């Protein structure tokens, strides 16, 4: 398929017929290299053929290249503009004579004949050395497998372009090229070499626009109209002579060949008949001198063969295109030796790259003066001392477009800029313009926000640190501007985007946010708290920092431990327990000392003769607590000398304990100031991913990039990546609400928040120090002016005034004064004491209620016992009355009968005893007797002893007891 691009169909058919069906490996005829070598030549004229033979004849006598016993012979044919005839002649007159290499020239009117020679010879791996072919197609080693050339390809002029741009300091260009293979090769070479060889981004040339046109065009005006709107005024042109004529004609019509425009062109475009004055072009040295190239090609070949014969054996070359289709392995290795040549020849330093293309080709830098005269103003030549190419230009001899000697700037400097910013307090405050408002306030600037998501545009008013800076810059360096907010509300970071191409969908990383707008050249300036870092500096330019800052951590001050037991904080739990135990131990010892001391009791001074009892245990406990709590003690003090000594010691102990408690209470509740939880970025709690500590930053910000770069912070970054916020405002609010423990962000913003809210504090020292800079496009003409203006602002104190006005607001002194002022105790601190008193009151009320209930229960129980005892005593009294009554009746009968009737009395007595037997008295306990029982029993005993009869009834008891008789 690739062959048909260079040859007609008939040529392809002929070459296919010459290719044998089977490839047989060719065996060497001997173990030694040949003693003679045929060198083929496909040349364009008789002079070249004659010179070819002469050079080879002289070569045989040059022992530096040809050792003894080796002879070179020339075999030449005339190149034909018909590539088929050329291929047949190569087979018939060169390969049939066993040529070891072929030197091919370029037919003036045809381009395909050298390709036919390369195809035919390359099929057998016979090296081909071109001396005039400069097309980019010969660099493709998949097609031209054994082709190398002593002339550079056209697209190598891009290397000289880059050197010229670097010399003049032009960093932004527009490339104009044809859509053929060579034109696209020039563009690829320029971009690749620029990225590879120019590490300094400040001097690296970047392509602002690429204009590709179809060859043999009729008009170029439409392209020129688009080029006028670009910023760059440096045009790099690759075009043929005919196309260059059209381009220069239309450019002159649109006044794009006058002063301010720079044209740097290749050799073909320089040969146009209407090249404007001031154009700079290139011309290859010895480009048309075939004789010098023939000599260099032959000597390079002889040098390679000589080195190869020393290292290995060279087999004989193929001899026939008809029946010898084997690949010549020695020819493949010979081509490798040829690519390693580096000699000084007639055309300069001759060397080859991996594609077999000529390196170190020398050019003249040509400047077109008036009357279409070409003047050499410089050269691109090989420096043998440094062993590299060097550009030398005489600037004073250059005539620039417009027939002037002053070098143009190379860019169109716009005076009206599109400026982007982003809401980030205190640098930019943005408020939405109300419906009833027509314009912003005097200290505000209109900053519309175009939402790329839904396509809506809303009017905002902006003010702040950066807005004041933008106003000062516009006034100092004289430009006007339109201000707008970031479309997606982000500073900018790399993100993956899907791109649909003809092959399929590919994923590509692109910038978004402010950086993306600047890279895509939809904005000219970024005036915002934009951190300068290497990732961004690779794609945009930064001014000198207008504010130096770093990264710090914002957290909320830890609240004091104002719990219900805050008043217990001065002493540890162990000390409180020991104090409680000591109170009761001392009370017990006081009780024992006063109890067993012989002087524990003493008589009162009164005359009643009573003694005061010793100290009991409850009084001892009351005394110990009273001394400790410094309360008045009215009763229950120790009486013995030993107990009073212990009481004095206990009083001293209590005084020390109370004084220590009072002093520490002030320190804990009044003078205590909470410290930050974190010590900085090196805090182990941040580094330890297992710790339950939430920290975060803003997605896609410079802080996010910083953590992504730091290998030692990778574990921490993986933890915080899931917690990152879209905006700093959300994160700061969550810190205030206690939802986020640590927010890592730029120190300027966090210091502003800490100065505004004294409950917030920054933790640790700054890390990742950097600065905020103004962002500009690559190669922007405003870079130097903005940088110089910012440096002036620093020297004049303008930046310091902005710091005081927008960042600190004077609140730092207020927070510092707040930190130095002692705290006042509040209900939070002493709530536990009030609760303790309340608990005492509730406990006392509860105890009195229990006591009342218990007392009532005891009284009720006592009443029941009294009733039961009274009933039992009445029952017992009734029984006694009955017994007394019976005895009285018996004695009355005896009295009535008379004492003289003894027998009758005895009989009567026996009868009474029988009828009314005397029962033994019931046993009575003193506890169950009535109060009068004792007196009754005593009287009864006395009467019996005296011989008196018992009384008929007792006055204590009721006479009517019939209802009690059972």
From TrEMBL:
Mind telling me which Gene3D superfamilies this protein's record contains?
Answer: 1.10.287.70, 3.40.50.2300, Periplasmic binding protein-like II
State the SMART domains in the record: Lig_chan-Glu_bd (SM00918), PBPe (SM00079)
The annotated site for Interaction with the cone snail toxin Con-ikot-ikot falls at 708
Q: Give the record's GO biological process terms.
A: ionotropic glutamate receptor signaling pathway
The entry's L-glutamate-binding residues are 529, 531, 536, 702, 746
Residue ranges of every copy of the Ionotropic glutamate receptor C-terminal domain listed in the record: 442-809
Keyword tags: Calcium, Cell membrane, Disulfide bond, Glycoprotein, Ion channel, Ion transport, Ligand-gated ion channel, Magnesium, Membrane, Phosphoprotein, Postsynaptic cell membrane, Receptor, Signal, Synapse, Transmembrane, Transmembrane helix, Transport
* Location(s), subcellular: Cell membrane; Postsynaptic cell membrane; Postsynaptic density
Q: Example GO molecular function term?
A: ligand-gated monoatomic ion channel activity
Q: List the disulfide bonds.
A: 758-815
User: Where does the entry annotate site (Crucial to convey clamshell closure to channel opening)?
Assistant: 678
GO cellular component, alphabetical, reads:
NMDA selective glutamate receptor complex; postsynaptic density; postsynaptic membrane
Q: Name one Pfam family in it.
A: Lig_chan-Glu_bd
All copies of the Ionotropic glutamate receptor L-glutamate and glycine-binding domain together span 449-520
Which SUPFAM superfamilies did the record assign? Periplasmic binding protein-like I (SSF53822), Periplasmic binding protein-like II (SSF53850), Voltage-gated potassium channels (SSF81324)
Give the top-rank taxon of the lineage listed in the UniProt record for this protein: Eukaryota
**What functional role does this protein have?**
NMDA receptor subtype of glutamate-gated ion channels with high calcium permeability and voltage-dependent sensitivity to magnesium. Mediated by glycine. This protein plays a key role in synaptic plasticity, synaptogenesis, excitotoxicity, memory acquisition and learning. It mediates neuronal functions in glutamate neurotransmission. Is involved in the cell surface targeting of NMDA receptors. Plays a role in associative learning and in long-term memory consolidation.
Q: What family name appears in the similarity comment? A: Belongs to the glutamate-gated ion channel (TC 1.A.10.1) family.
- Report the protein name in the record: Glutamate [NMDA] receptor subunit 1
Q: Which organism is the protein's source?
A: Anopheles stephensi
């Amino acid at each position: 398929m690739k062959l048909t691009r260079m040859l007609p169909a008939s040529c392809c058919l002929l070459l296919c017929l010459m290719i044998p069906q089977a490839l047989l490996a060719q065996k060497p005829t001997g173990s030694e290299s040949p003693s003679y070598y045929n060198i083929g030549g496909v040349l364009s004229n008789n002079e070249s053929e004659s010179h070819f033979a002469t050079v080879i004849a002289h070569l045989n006598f040059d022992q530096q290249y040809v050792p003894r016993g080796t002879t070179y012979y020339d075999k030449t044919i005339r190149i034909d503009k018909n590539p088929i005839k050329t291929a047949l002649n190569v087979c018939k007159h060169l390969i049939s004579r066993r040529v070891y290499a072929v030197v091919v020239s370029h037919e003036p009117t045809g381009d395909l004949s050298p390709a036919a020679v390369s195809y035919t010879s390359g099929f057998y791996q016979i090296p081909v050395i071109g001396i005039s072919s400069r097309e980019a197609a010969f660099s493709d080693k998949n097609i031209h497998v054994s082709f190398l050339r002593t002339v550079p390809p056209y697209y190598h002029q891009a290397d000289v372009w880059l050197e010229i741009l670097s010399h003049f300091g032009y960093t932004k260009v527009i490339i104009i090229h044809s859509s053929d293979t060579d034109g696209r090769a020039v563009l690829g070479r320029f971009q690749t070499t620029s990225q590879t060889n120019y590490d300094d981004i400040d001097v690296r040339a970047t392509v602002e626009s690429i204009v590709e046109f179809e060859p043999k065009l009729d008009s170029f005006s439409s392209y020129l109209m688009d080029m006028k709107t670009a910023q760059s005024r440096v045009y790099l042109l690759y075009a043929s002579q005919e196309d260059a004529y059209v381009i220069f004609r239309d450019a002159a019509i649109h006044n794009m060949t006058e002063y301010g425009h720079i044209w740097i062109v290749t050799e073909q475009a320089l040969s146009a008949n209407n090249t404007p004055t001031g154009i700079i072009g290139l011309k290859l040295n010895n480009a048309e001198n075939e004789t010098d190239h023939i000599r260099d090609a032959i000597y390079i070949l002889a040098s390679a063969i000589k080195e190869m014969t020393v290292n290995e054996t060279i087999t004989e070359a193929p001899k026939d295109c008809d029946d010898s289709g084997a690949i010549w392995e020695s020819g493949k290795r010979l081509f490798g030796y040829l690519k390693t040549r580096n000699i000084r020849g007639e055309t300069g330093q001759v060397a080859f790259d991996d594609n077999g293309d000529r390196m170190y080709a020398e050019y003249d830098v040509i400047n077109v003066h008036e009357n279409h005269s070409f003047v050499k103003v410089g050269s691109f030549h090989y420096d043998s001392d440094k062993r590299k190419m060097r550009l030398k230009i005489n600037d004073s001899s250059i005539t620039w477009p417009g027939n002037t000697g002053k070098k143009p700037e190379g860019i169109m400097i716009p005076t009206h800029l599109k400026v982007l910013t982003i809401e980030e307090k205190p640098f930019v405050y943005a408020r939405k313009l109300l419906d009833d408002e027509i314009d912003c306030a005097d200290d505000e600037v209109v900053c519309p926000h175009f939402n790329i998501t839904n396509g809506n545009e809303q009017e905002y008013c902006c003010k702040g640190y950066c807005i004041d800076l933008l106003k000062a810059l516009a006034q100092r360096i004289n430009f006007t501007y339109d201000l707008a907010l970031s479309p997606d509300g982000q500073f900018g970071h790399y993100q993956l985007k899907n791109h649909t191409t003809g092959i399929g969908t590919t994923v590509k990383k692109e910038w978004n946010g402010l950086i993306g707008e600047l890279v895509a050249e939809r904005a000219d300036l970024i005036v915002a708290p934009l951190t300068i870092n290497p990732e961004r500096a690779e794609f945009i330019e930064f001014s000198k920092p207008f504010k130096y800052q770093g990264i710090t951590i914002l957290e909320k001050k830890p609240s004091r431990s104002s719990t219900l037991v805050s008043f217990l904080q001065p002493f540890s739990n162990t000390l409180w327990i020991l104090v409680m135990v000591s109170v009761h131990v001392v009370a017990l010892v006081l009780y024992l000392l006063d109890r067993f001391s012989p002087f524990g009791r003493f008589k009162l001074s009164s005359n009643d003769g009573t003694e005061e009892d010793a100290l009991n245990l409850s009084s001892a406990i009351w005394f110990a607590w009273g001394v400790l709590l410094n309360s008045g003690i009215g009763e229950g003090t120790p009486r013995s000398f030993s107990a009073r000594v212990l009481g004095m010691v206990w009083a001293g102990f209590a005084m020390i304990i109370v004084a220590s408690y009072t002093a520490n209470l002030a320190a804990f509740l009044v003078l205590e100031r909470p410290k930050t939880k974190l010590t900085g970025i090196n805090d182990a709690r941040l580094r330890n991913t297992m710790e339950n500590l939430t920290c975060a930053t803003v997605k896609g910000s410079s802080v996010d990039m910083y953590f992504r770069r730091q290998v030692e912070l990778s574990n921490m970054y993986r933890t915080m990546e899931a917690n990152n916020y879209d905006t700093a405002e959300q994160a700061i609010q969550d810190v205030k609400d206690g939802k986020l423990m640590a927010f890592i962000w730029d120190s300027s913003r966090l210091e502003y928040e800490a100065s505004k809210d004294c409950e917030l504090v920054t933790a640790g020292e700054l890390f990742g120090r950097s600065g905020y800079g103004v962002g500009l496009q690559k190669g922007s003409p405003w870079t130097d002016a903005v940088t110089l203006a910012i440096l002036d602002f620093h020297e004049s104190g303008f930046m310091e005034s902005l710091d005081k006005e927008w960042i600190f607001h004077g609140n730092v002194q207020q927070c510092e004064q707040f930190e130095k002022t002692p705290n006042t105790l509040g209900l939070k601190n002493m709530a536990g004491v009030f609760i303790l008193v309340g608990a005492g009151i509730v406990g006392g009320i509860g105890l009195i209620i229990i006591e009342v209930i218990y007392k009532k229960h005891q009284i009720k129980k006592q009443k029941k016992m009294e009733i039961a005892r009274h009933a039992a005593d009445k029952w017992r009294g009734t029984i006694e009355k009955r017994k007394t009554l019976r005895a009285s009746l018996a004695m009355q009968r005896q009295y009535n009968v008379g004492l003289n009737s003894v027998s009758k009395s005895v009989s009567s007595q026996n009868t009474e005893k029988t009828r009314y037997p005397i029962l033994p008295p019931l046993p009575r306990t003193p506890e169950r007797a009535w109060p009068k029982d004792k007196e009754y029993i005593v009287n009864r005993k006395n009467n019996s002893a005296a011989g008196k009869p018992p009384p008929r009834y007792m006055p204590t008891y009721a006479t009517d007891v019939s209802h009690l008789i059972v």
